[in-house]
Amino acid sequence: MGNEVFNIAKGRVAELYNRVDLNDPANSALIIILLATTGLEADTALRDFDTVSALVAGTTNEATNTGYARKVLTDSDISAFAPDDTTTEWTSTSPTRPGPGSPMTAPGRSVNSSRPTTATQRAGRMPTSCR
Protein backbone atom coordinates (compact mmCIF):
# COMPACT_ATOMS: atom_id res chain seq x y z
CA MET A 1 0.00 0.00 0.00
CA GLY A 2 1.52 3.28 -1.04
CA ASN A 3 -0.20 6.47 0.04
CA GLU A 4 -3.73 5.17 0.43
CA VAL A 5 -6.97 6.72 1.67
CA PHE A 6 -9.34 4.43 3.54
CA ASN A 7 -12.69 4.07 1.76
CA ILE A 8 -14.61 5.62 4.67
CA ALA A 9 -12.45 8.77 4.51
CA LYS A 10 -12.41 9.38 0.75
CA GLY A 11 -13.37 12.98 0.12
CA ARG A 12 -13.17 13.76 3.84
CA VAL A 13 -9.46 13.84 4.75
CA ALA A 14 -8.97 17.57 4.13
CA GLU A 15 -12.10 18.46 6.11
CA LEU A 16 -11.12 16.26 9.06
CA TYR A 17 -7.67 17.92 9.06
CA ASN A 18 -9.29 21.36 8.88
CA ARG A 19 -11.62 20.54 11.80
CA VAL A 20 -8.62 19.68 13.98
CA ASP A 21 -6.86 22.85 12.81
CA LEU A 22 -9.92 24.89 13.89
CA ASN A 23 -10.28 22.88 17.12
CA ASP A 24 -13.84 22.00 16.10
CA PRO A 25 -15.01 20.17 18.08
CA ALA A 26 -12.81 21.09 21.02
CA ASN A 27 -10.05 18.59 21.73
CA SER A 28 -10.29 16.92 18.32
CA ALA A 29 -7.02 15.43 17.08
CA LEU A 30 -5.30 13.44 14.39
CA ILE A 31 -3.58 10.32 15.68
CA ILE A 32 -0.74 8.50 13.94
CA ILE A 33 -0.41 4.82 14.76
CA LEU A 34 2.05 2.27 13.45
CA LEU A 35 1.06 -1.20 12.36
CA ALA A 36 3.31 -4.19 12.94
CA THR A 37 4.76 -5.89 9.87
CA THR A 38 3.83 -9.38 11.12
CA GLY A 39 0.24 -10.28 10.32
CA LEU A 40 -0.36 -7.19 8.17
CA GLU A 41 -3.40 -7.83 5.98
CA ALA A 42 -3.52 -7.17 2.23
CA ASP A 43 -4.01 -3.62 0.97
CA THR A 44 -7.43 -4.51 -0.41
CA ALA A 45 -8.58 -5.57 3.06
CA LEU A 46 -6.98 -2.68 4.96
CA ARG A 47 -8.70 0.07 2.99
CA ASP A 48 -12.14 -1.32 3.84
CA PHE A 49 -11.89 -0.93 7.63
CA ASP A 50 -14.10 1.84 9.04
CA THR A 51 -12.67 2.17 12.56
CA VAL A 52 -9.28 1.74 14.19
CA SER A 53 -10.77 -1.06 16.33
CA ALA A 54 -11.83 -2.96 13.22
CA LEU A 55 -8.43 -2.32 11.64
CA VAL A 56 -6.59 -4.11 14.45
CA ALA A 57 -9.25 -6.74 15.24
CA GLY A 58 -7.99 -9.29 12.71
CA THR A 59 -4.41 -10.33 12.03
CA THR A 60 -3.24 -6.72 11.63
CA ASN A 61 -1.87 -5.38 14.92
CA GLU A 62 -0.62 -2.09 16.24
CA ALA A 63 3.13 -2.00 16.82
CA THR A 64 4.33 -2.93 20.31
CA ASN A 65 7.99 -1.99 20.00
CA THR A 66 9.89 -0.59 22.97
CA GLY A 67 9.58 3.19 22.95
CA TYR A 68 6.55 3.24 20.64
CA ALA A 69 3.63 5.50 21.44
CA ARG A 70 0.85 6.87 19.27
CA LYS A 71 1.48 10.39 18.03
CA VAL A 72 -1.44 12.71 18.88
CA LEU A 73 -1.59 15.89 16.78
CA THR A 74 -3.77 18.77 17.94
CA ASP A 75 -4.43 22.15 16.36
CA SER A 76 -1.15 23.50 17.75
CA ASP A 77 0.86 20.70 16.09
CA ILE A 78 -0.33 21.03 12.50
CA SER A 79 0.07 23.73 9.89
CA ALA A 80 -2.87 25.88 8.87
CA PHE A 81 -5.15 24.44 6.22
CA ALA A 82 -4.15 26.06 2.92
CA PRO A 83 -5.07 24.57 -0.47
CA ASP A 84 -2.78 25.43 -3.37
CA ASP A 85 -4.93 26.99 -6.08
CA THR A 86 -2.09 26.90 -8.60
CA THR A 87 -1.50 23.15 -8.47
CA THR A 88 -5.11 22.43 -7.44
CA GLU A 89 -3.81 20.23 -4.66
CA TRP A 90 -3.68 20.26 -0.91
CA THR A 91 -0.77 18.84 1.01
CA SER A 92 -0.06 18.76 4.69
CA THR A 93 2.96 18.12 6.82
CA SER A 94 3.02 16.68 10.27
CA PRO A 95 5.69 16.10 12.89
CA THR A 96 7.75 12.93 12.74
CA ARG A 97 6.13 9.56 13.08
CA PRO A 98 5.83 7.96 16.53
CA GLY A 99 8.94 6.91 18.34
CA PRO A 100 11.65 9.23 16.95
CA GLY A 101 14.97 8.08 18.29
CA SER A 102 13.51 4.86 19.73
CA PRO A 103 14.87 1.41 18.92
CA MET A 104 11.98 0.59 16.59
CA THR A 105 12.09 -1.80 13.71
CA ALA A 106 10.51 -0.61 10.47
CA PRO A 107 6.72 -0.55 10.82
CA GLY A 108 4.41 -2.33 8.42
CA ARG A 109 2.35 0.83 7.83
CA SER A 110 1.82 4.27 9.31
CA VAL A 111 -1.90 5.04 9.73
CA ASN A 112 -3.44 8.47 10.26
CA SER A 113 -6.76 8.51 12.07
CA SER A 114 -9.27 11.10 13.22
CA ARG A 115 -10.44 11.48 16.83
CA PRO A 116 -13.45 13.80 17.26
CA THR A 117 -12.90 14.36 21.01
CA THR A 118 -10.63 13.13 23.80
CA ALA A 119 -13.50 10.93 25.02
CA THR A 120 -13.69 9.04 21.71
CA GLN A 121 -12.50 5.49 22.20
CA ARG A 122 -10.68 3.46 19.55
CA ALA A 123 -13.96 2.06 18.20
CA GLY A 124 -15.06 5.58 17.22
CA ARG A 125 -11.82 6.69 15.58
CA MET A 126 -11.80 6.75 11.80
CA PRO A 127 -8.70 5.63 9.91
CA THR A 128 -8.12 8.24 7.20
CA SER A 129 -4.92 7.43 5.33
CA CYS A 130 -2.05 4.98 5.32
CA ARG A 131 1.45 4.80 3.96
Elements, N to C (H/E): EHEHHEEE
How confident is the prediction overall: mean pLDDT?
Answer: 82
Question: How many individual helices?
Answer: 3
Largest sheet features = 5 strands, antiparallel
Determine the strand fraction and express it as a percent band: 15-25%
**Taking Cα atoms only, what radius of gyration do you get, to the nearest Å?**
14 Å
Number of strands: 5
* SS class: alpha+beta
Query: Which consecutive residue ranges, at least 5 long each, have pLDDT under 50?
Result: 98-104
Strand order of the largest sheet: 1-5-4-2-3
Q: How far from one another are the termini? A: 6 Å
Helix content bin: 10-25%
Task: Describe the protein in words.
This protein has three helices and five strands, in the order βαβααβββ. It is of the alpha+beta class and 131 residues long. The protein has helices spanning 13-21, 43-46, 52-55, and strands at residues 4-5, 29-35, 71-73, 109-115, 126-130. Strands 1-5-4-2-3 form a five-stranded antiparallel β-sheet, with helices on one face. Residues 98-104 have low confidence and may be disordered. It is globular. It has one domain. Helix content is 13%, strand content 18%. The N and C termini lie close together (6 Å).
Structural features:
five-stranded antiparallel β-sheet, globular, alpha+beta, 131 residues
